[in-house]
Amino acid sequence: MHADAFDRYHDKESFIHRLDPRVKTIVTVVFIVSNALLPDGAWLAFVLAWVFLLGVNLLSNLGLIYTFKRSFVALPFALVAITVLFSIPGNPVASFRFLMWDFTITDAGLLRFVSILIRSWLSVQMAIMLVAVTRFPDLIHALEHLRVPAILTTIIAFLYRYLFVLVDEVYRLLRARESRSAAASGQRSGGSVLWRAKVAGNMAGQLFLRSYERSDRIYNAMLSRGYVGHLYTLNPHEMKSSDYLVTAFAIVLIFVMQIIGRL
Fold first, then answer.
1. Quick one: pLDDT at residue 1?
2. Has residue 182 got a pLDDT over 50?
């Protein structure tokens, strides 16, 4: 019912969707690592990385700027790097006073900050594309095929699946609260802020207990159906020659970006 809150997969018929999930996972990881390794101010390499993303968007049939429109939601998290504006030595660009402190923005700090924003923005776009063209079970199996420790893949898989359980329990609690907080027409239901805080605390405690009990029931149901610590899929995940060619071609392009970024 509330699967769309977390599941960002878009079922399309495209070249990117048909690729083996291992290919998409490897290319995504290499692309993100490459962005992190690019020097500050490698503008041409950043442009080429975005052109690479636009090409992937086009081949996925999701729209040329699909990831572009969805990537800005993550940019505020990159603002944690704002301190580099003042902490890196360089030529002063601007100065201002905040409360009792004087801050000076340097050219080196500004260059580092803008580069961090661009790296984060490009990496987020690639991650958005990965989850948009790869089903979550296929992504988990791709990690298993790539020899990611089983304990990590299991934790990720169950974390994802139990998010839906938690959301379902939250909606049930909210419906129960609304049914017990009815008010006359035109009046606000509920009580004071303190009363609402107390209700919210009780709901959090109930959510923990109900989720714990439900998770125990789900686990017992899984054991009764033969669960032995491994998740299976109907997808055989067989690498084809086209998958190897795409992987090699994408890695070569990313390597070229690294060379251009250092020229």
1. 46
2. yes
More confident residue, 58 or 208: 58
CA atoms within 13 A on the CB side of 193: 0
List of long-range contacts for 167-176, beta carbons under 8 Å, 24+ apart: 167/2, 167/5, 167/6, 168/1, 168/2, 169/207, 169/210, 169/211, 169/214, 170/207, 171/1, 171/2, 173/203, 173/206, 173/207, 173/210
Q: Comparing C-alpha atoms, which of 17, 254, 22, 25 is closest to residue 127? A: 25
Report in angstroms the alpha-carbon separations of 164 from 5, 104, 167, 191.
9, 47, 5, 30
- Domain ranges in the chain are 3-134+236-261, 150-224
pLDDT in tens, 128-158: 999 999 988 888 888 888 888 888 888 888 7
Instruction: Say what the pTM is.
Output: 0.78
